[in-house]
Amino acid sequence: MEQAVPVYILSGFLGSGKTTLLQRMLAAFRAEGKRPAVVMNELGEVNLDGQLVDSQVPTAELLGGCICCSIRGDLSLQLAELVQKEAPDVIIIEATGAANPMDILEGVSETSLYVRLELRELITVVDAAHLYDLYQEQRGKTYRLMQEQIRCASLLILNKTDRVGEEARDKLNELLRKWNAYAPVSEAVQCDVSLENLLYADTAGTELKEAQGSEAHHHHAKSCGHDHGEACGCSDSQEQTRHEHHHSHAHVMAYTHYFAGPVNSVEFEKLLRELPRDVYRAKGILTFNDTSGRFLFQYAYRESDFMKINPQGEVQDVAVFIGEHFDKEEMRQRLSSLETSPVN
Ligand SMILES: Nc1nc2c(ncn2[C@@H]2O[C@H](COP(=O)(O)OP(=O)(O)OP(=O)(O)O)[C@@H](O)[C@H]2O)c(=O)[nH]1
């Protein structure tokens, strides 16, 4: 009988390290001679993470929304198409950091009714520094979303441990155990974990497979804190009325800026340093007028990083800013004021 294609879901809050883990997993699968395929979901209108994935890897993109609301139907279609067209040995789904993984898990389960898929693991990557800071306050929507993402996981990676001290690490391990008593926890920097243990730890996989059965699934849903009844904050109003349930990420919004010309690198870094606290993730591709080449920039929880890049395909200079209730118009004006005339 035809083998089911194993599926891995990567979850974790914005900027926690999902793409970093994705790259490691892809390298590990390919080293074993396997053909992985990827489904990437971004809140912004462009897939910048796709620039970090080898162009040889078949990739389906779900852009401009979150899998778990307006484009959940698309997830099923994309999965089915990937299996039929590419016949991959394994599929990795990278969710937006704002997604509730329970909805993606349901999406994969639905698809597995008509395409042979086997949900193997739901891996949640946790930004140690970000969670520790929110833990001090013990409230807020982002804190609750992180909690849901951690609860649903079959494997947990406590990433960015370079940004916290030993005391915080102990506290975080305790917290993860409290929220999810079953998933093995691996501490990591740059998601550098032993992938053999991670990908072939069968116990957690079994639990997830069982979760595809309705009763276990119901139980799983309950333990994920996926409470129904509150109004949905999805942008799509039809969707909103169709399934009136609670999405804890409804507070998250994205602004995509297409640059009309190069910007000054010093001024741009200053803008990143001065971003409001409510903008917790940004990324983009830029041309600077004071240094040659193009750069992929990353900003995650107040840390920024620039990498020289030769974009695959035609990519305009663009930046995506993700956060809570920030002023998009103010952001647009600030970014536009940095633009200079294109260099000929
Ligand atoms: N200091 C530190 N930075 C890290 C670590 N792991 C990843 N990063 C950096 O954090 C930034 C975000 O990492 P990504 O892997 O893109 O995070 P992500 O979860 O895919 O982000 P979204 O897709 O936007 O949700 C990048 O600049 C990474 O280089 C780590 O362990 N420590």
Automatic annotation (TrEMBL):
Location of the CobW/HypB/UreG nucleotide-binding domain: 6-185
Recorded catalytic activity of this chain's protein: GTP + H2O = GDP + phosphate + H(+)
Domain CobW C-terminal, chain residue ranges per copy: 256-337
One Pfam family this sequence matches: CobW_C
Keywords: Chaperone, Hydrolase, Nucleotide-binding
Keyword Cytoplasm part of the UniProt annotation: no
Family (UniProt): Belongs to the SIMIBI class G3E GTPase family. ZNG1 subfamily.
The protein's name in its UniProt record: CobW family GTP-binding protein
